Amino acid sequence: MSDTRITEDFLGFGLGLRTDHFEHILQHQPDIDWFEVLSENYLVAGGKPRYYLEAIVEQYPVVMHGVSMSIGSSDPLDMDYLKALKKLSNDIQPKWISDHICWTSIHGVNSHDLLPLPYTEETVNHVAERVRIVQDFLGRRILLENVSSYLSYQDSTMDEWDFLSQVAEAADCLILLDINNIYVSARNHHFNPLDYLKKIDPRRVQQFHLAGHSDFGDYVIDTHDHDVSPSVWTLYQAALERFGPVSTMIERDANIPEFPVLYQELLEAKHIAELTLPDNAELARSSFGTRSLVGLNKHISTNNVSPKHVRA
């Protein structure tokens, strides 16, 4: 892990690969730059999911994104899971592998939720050591994603952004910055999301997530079943101003629309990036949207993005 380059190359604009869209992708071969694969869906060899995955991997770059590493748990690392993860990685050759800075299991029982950690020096050391073990086993850096949260620990001694930064530095890993999760947690815990962005090291931010949430007024829940909200688009613009071009994708896990609907939403992300970072050479290398540029301005003007959210 001694190479001087921290992040991988900018991939462009991607989508989460979902079973609903397998046939559309193979039939129409849309000009998406890359897809994010949910690791746990493909750990078993064979079957229709692997058939479709292997066909799509032949045509598109992919990254792997997991929810079961439980990097913050006090349980021992699940080596069987890590072996299966490494086997999948060897099979499909993802550009990178990510999971969440959280815990999901205790005493061998999986909560099936991404639970936040106490933000303390002890937890920093604990998580960083486990990340180093995982990276040594996989033979590559991993990305850690910030999770949304709804409660906090009384024992916490630092802010979430300082905790994430210290773990990434101590473990020499990278960061998947979920813009929607920052917004959700900011609303729930009453902090300024811009403070979060300001404290994260740009050298370590490899990827952005964009997603929708459910707003209940007094609190917000990260549900991934809505369009990206105007407030999250605005925060995305601020993230671009802070970090520059970062590989960006949209997650949708429920109430999944037809593929063209998500395609159009992803066009909004690219349009915001181009307005925020005009004449950027890395953005210019993205092939996404080149088949739909004629209709882009019309679509943008009738949807969420407006001069209120993006400065031309």
UniProtKB/TrEMBL annotation:
It holds the Pfam family MbnB_TglH_ChrH. It comes from the Bacteria. PANTHER family: UPF0276 PROTEIN HI_1600. Belongs to the UPF0276 family. This is UPF0276 protein NE535_16120. It comes from Shewanella holmiensis. The lineage of its organism: Bacteria, Pseudomonadati, Pseudomonadota, Gammaproteobacteria, Alteromonadales.
